[in-house]
């Protein structure tokens, strides 16, 4: 499930403040679902920060650079390929997690293989991300799907 053109979070580097800003979610999800959603995003953000630190150290990147992280949740438990954790640097795919095989796969970024090798050694993060994708992501996708359908039906009446 992918939500386009919605700012999910804002990170303010000077204060290290992370604010989840997906207003549609906050306004339409039940409070417990919103709290779960916040916790879930926070977990992925934590691993993303670890990986970005490793990437910047491995590639000896100095100064500011742009990174992106995308998490995809499948609404079908029978679709392991529908789950994804992808990291990009300066708009180019760096690595993504192949959930089916449990390995990091290098992307098109010039130093992707070095990043892949570094992340593959971090078994704790790999297992934690896999567990979140396989165990929590599906429930979140279903909640979003149901809530979205309810919101659309209210809007069309």
Structure characteristics:
157 residues, alpha+beta, Murine Class I Major Histocompatibility Complex, H2-DB, Chain A, domain 1, two-stranded antiparallel ribbon, 49% helix, elongated, disordered N terminus, MHC_I-like_Ag-recog
Describe the structure.
The protein is of the alpha+beta class and 157 residues long. It has one domain: 2-Layer Sandwich (Murine Class I Major Histocompatibility Complex, H2-DB, Chain A, domain 1). It is 49% helix and 20% strand. The chain is built from four helices and six strands, in the order ββααββββαα. The strands form two sheets. Strands 3-4-5-6 form a four-stranded antiparallel sheet, covered by helices on one side. The chain has a two-stranded antiparallel ribbon with strand order 1-2. Helix 2 packs across helix 3. It is elongated. 17% of the residues are buried. The N terminus is likely disordered.
Query: The CATH topology is what?
Result: Murine Class I Major Histocompatibility Complex, H2-DB, Chain A, domain 1
Strand order of the largest sheet: 3-4-5-6
Per CATH, the class reads Alpha Beta
Query: Count of DSSP helices?
Result: 4
Average pLDDT number: 74
Shape: elongated
CATH superfamily: MHC class I-like antigen recognition-like
Radius of gyration over all CA atoms, rounded: 17 Å
Strand content: 15-25%
CATH arch. level architecture? 2-Layer Sandwich
Low-confidence stretches: 1-12
């Amino acid at each position: 499930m992918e939500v386009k053109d919605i700012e999910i979070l804002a990170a303010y580097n000077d204060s290290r403040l992370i604010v989840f800003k997906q207003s549609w979610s906050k306004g339409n999800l039940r409070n417990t679902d919103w709290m779960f959603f916040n916790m879930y995003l926070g977990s992925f953000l934590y691993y993303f920060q670890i990986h970005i630190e490793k990437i910047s150290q491995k590639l000896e990147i100095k100064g500011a650079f742009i990174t992106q992280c995308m998490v995809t949740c499948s609404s079908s438990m029978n679709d392991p390929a529908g789950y994804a954790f992808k990291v990009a640097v300066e708009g180019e795919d760096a690595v993504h997690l192949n959930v089916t095989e449990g390995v990091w796969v290098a992307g098109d970024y010039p130093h992707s293989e070095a990043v892949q090798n570094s992340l593959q050694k971090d078994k704790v993060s790999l297992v934690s991300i896999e567990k979140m994708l396989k165990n929590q992501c599906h429930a979140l996708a279903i909640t979003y799907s149901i809530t979205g359908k309810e919101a659309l039906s209210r809007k069309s009446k």
